Task: structure prediction
Amino acid sequence: MTSIALCTINNTARPIARLCQVSRAAHGTADFHSYSTLRKRAFLPGGKWSFIRAGTRRMSHASPGRISLGRYGKGVFLAAGAAAVTGVLTAGVSHFQRAEMATKVSTVEEEEGDIRERCKSFMSLPVTDIRVLEQRKDAMSARMEMLIMETQAAFCKALEEVDGGAFKVDRWSRKEGGGGISCVMQDGKVYEKAGVNVSVVFGNLTEEAAKQMRSRGKVLKGKDGKLPFCAMGVSSVIHPKNPHIPTVHFNYRYFEIEEADGTKQWWFGGGTDLTPVYVDLEDATHFHKTLKKACDKHHPKYYPDFKKWCDNYFYIRHRAETRGIGGIFFDDLDSPNQEEAFNFVKSCAKTVVPCYLPIVYKHLNDSFTPEQKDWQQVRRGRYVEFNLVYDRGVKFGLATPGSRIESILMSLPLTARWEYMHEPTKGSKEAEMLEVLRNPKEWI
Amino acid sequence: MTSIALCTINNTARPIARLCQVSRAAHGTADFHSYSTLRKRAFLPGGKWSFIRAGTRRMSHASPGRISLGRYGKGVFLAAGAAAVTGVLTAGVSHFQRAEMATKVSTVEEEEGDIRERCKSFMSLPVTDIRVLEQRKDAMSARMEMLIMETQAAFCKALEEVDGGAFKVDRWSRKEGGGGISCVMQDGKVYEKAGVNVSVVFGNLTEEAAKQMRSRGKVLKGKDGKLPFCAMGVSSVIHPKNPHIPTVHFNYRYFEIEEADGTKQWWFGGGTDLTPVYVDLEDATHFHKTLKKACDKHHPKYYPDFKKWCDNYFYIRHRAETRGIGGIFFDDLDSPNQEEAFNFVKSCAKTVVPCYLPIVYKHLNDSFTPEQKDWQQVRRGRYVEFNLVYDRGVKFGLATPGSRIESILMSLPLTARWEYMHEPTKGSKEAEMLEVLRNPKEWI
Result:
C-alpha cells in the first residue's frame, strides 16, 4: 500500500461511478457499454495467464553492472517515487493466453498503438485528457499514465473473469490538479474486497515536503520555495474470501519534480508482495520465480536486493513478524537511465497477473473449516496493523488534509479479528505459517 | 487507551494465568478460590450500581479558583501522566447497591483498611509485594497502586456479574522493574471483548524520554542523564456484542520522576469516554451527568474543560469525526496539590461503574438486526483506526521495544469491518450517529 497516498491531497474528491458515461461527451469517446464489450474481447478462454508478444519493438533494459544498488539497501524507505523527463511511448495493449503456472511470464514486448484506441480498454478514461496525452505521448508522465491505466485494466479484468462480479469504478478529481480512478469489488464470489487504484496528481510542493518524499532526502531548490511536481501510480490490494487464496498487494509509481533552474528530478518505486494465510510452497515458489524472471531481465541484483527490501519493509515490528511472504519492493529508482528504469517498472507491472492469477485459480474450490477462516481473520488483523501503523503511503495519506480516505483505506480488509493472546497450536499449519513470517525464507 | 502504554517497556513479559496461585507461596496469602469467594461476597443482588458511603473519612477536594486550567486546553496531549510524593492512604473497599440510573453516584468515601485484607478482593495480588505496600502505605505510589487494583477489581466484578463469564487474568513482570495484570474476557455472553489492565512499572528514563512523557515538555535534570521514574495506571476497553450497548474506555494513571537533586515531579492523567453505535440521549446524558457530578466536587471547570479535551483527543482526523460521544480526558494534572489531584482521580475511577453499568443493563436484552450489527462492525473499524493511528499510548507502546503487545492491543475489538464508501442512508439512525460524531454535542 505504499503509494496509495498518491491519490491524496484531494480537497474535492468527487467520486463518479463509471465516469466514461459522464465524460464521453467531452472527449467524444465510446461509452461504458463499448468498454465492456472491449473488455470481454480482450480475454481468451482459460483460467491461467501470461503476457504474449503482441508487437515487434524490443525494449532496451538496464545493463547489469552499470547500476549502483548500494543505496537502496540501507533501510531508507519512503512512500512516493520517481520524477519525469520525456521519452518514447511504446506501451501496447496486453493480451492473455493459457499458460502453465510459473512459465513463459512477461516477455515485455509492445506495439506502438493509437492512444485513443488503447484507452478504450481502460476501466475509465485516463485522468489526463486524452488530447493532452496524445500531444505529450513521448513524455514519461504520459507513458507512465498509460502503463498504470493498462495495468489497472488488465488486473481488474483478470479478477472479474475469476469472480464473475464487476468492479465499481469511482473517478475523483483533485482541485489542485489531477485525480484518480478507484476500482473496488466488495463481497464478491471470490473476493472479500478487491481494490485497484490509479492516481495522477500534480501541483506544487514545498522544498521540505519534496525532500521528505525522496528516500535519500536530497535538497531540491524551488522557485520561491515551490517545486512543481507530478506523481502517479497504480496500487492494489486483493483480499479473497477463501483462506487458501492469498492476499496480494502491488504498487508501481512515478514521481517528477522540477527545480528552479528547470532541472527535472524523477524516480520510480514499486513492488508486488503476497500475504498467504497458509504456507503453500508451490505458490510461494511460483510467485517469487515469476518476479525474479521479470527482474533478471533488467539486472541480476534486482531480485535479491528488492526481495530483501520487501521483507524489511513489510515488517510488523511490534509483532516481530513480516506481513506476508514478501516479493519485491523498491523506491527512489532513477538509474541507469529513465528509459531503463521505466522498462523495469513495466516488466514488473506486467508480471502482476501471471504472478497472482494462477494461484487464485489453483485454490478457487479449496474447502476450508471455520477454524481456518478464523485464522485468516486473525491474519487480516495483522494486515490492518501493518497498514495503519507502518505503511508510509497510508501514513502520508492520512496525515495529508483533504486526502481521499476511501481510496487510501481501500486496502483494509472487509473484516478482521483480534484475539487476545492468540497463539497457534504447536505443529499446526497455522504455526507453520507463523514460523515463516517470523523467519523470512528464500523461496527460490 | 491512552495509558495502556504504561504496561510496556517489558522485555520479559511472562503471562501467568491467575498468578495468585503462583505467588501465594511467596506472600502467604489466599489462593484463587478464596479470591473468588470474596468476589462473590462483595456483590449485593441487583443490576444497577452506585458507590455508597462505607466509611467516615471525608476527602478534601481541590478548591475551585485555585487552579489554572488554561494550559491543558491548548491541545498538548501526551500519553503518560503524573509523578509522586507521599500522602496518607485512605482508599477503602467499595461496595455496590441498587441505584437508579443517574442518581446517587460516587459519594467518594472510604475507610482506612488493612492492605493485606483489601488485596483479597483484587483480581490478582498487586504488582508490588504486599509487604512493600504495607511499609510504604503513605506514599502516593502505594496509594495509587491500591486504587488502580481496586478499580480493576470493581469493574471486572461488575462486568462478570452481567455476563456470567469470568475474566482471564494474566500477570506479567518487567525485567527492569514492575509488571502488570491484564484481565480479559473474550467472546462472552454480553461482551465481544472486555479488557481491564493494570500496570506498575519503574526504572530509569533518559532526560529526553522524560521530557516527551510530559505534556508541557518540562526539562528535567537527571543524575548522569538518568531519571528514576515510576508509572502506573488502570485502563480498560469494553466492546459488547449487542450494538445497542456502547463501548466504554477509561484510563487513570500516575507518573513520578526523581530529579538529580531529589526533587520529585509527579502528575496524574486519565479519563472515561463512551463510544455508542447508536445515539441514545438518555444514555449520553446519564454518562456525562455522572462524570460531571464527580468532576464538580473538585472544580467547576473540570467537567467543561475535560469534556472539551476529550472531544479533541478522541478525534479521528482523517474521518473528520470523533471516536464516540466523549466523556472526560485530562493529562499532566499536578495541581492544586497532590492530595487534591489524587482525590479527583479517585472520584473519577470510582465513577466508572455507575457511569457504564446502568447503560449495559438497560440494553441487555435489546433486539437488533443484522444491519445494525454491520453498522456496529463498521464503527469498530473506526475504533481500530483511532487506536492504531492516533492514540498516543498505543503509539508509544508499539514503538517501545519489548512492550507487552497483547496488553496494548487488548483494546482492539474481536471483530471489525471496513466497507468501501460506506455512508448511512439519509435520515437513518446510523446517519444520526454520524452527525453527532461529526459535530460533538453538549449532553448536559
About this structure: The CA atoms of residues 100 and 278 of chain A lie 22 Å apart. The first strand of chain A starts at residue 16 and ends at 17.
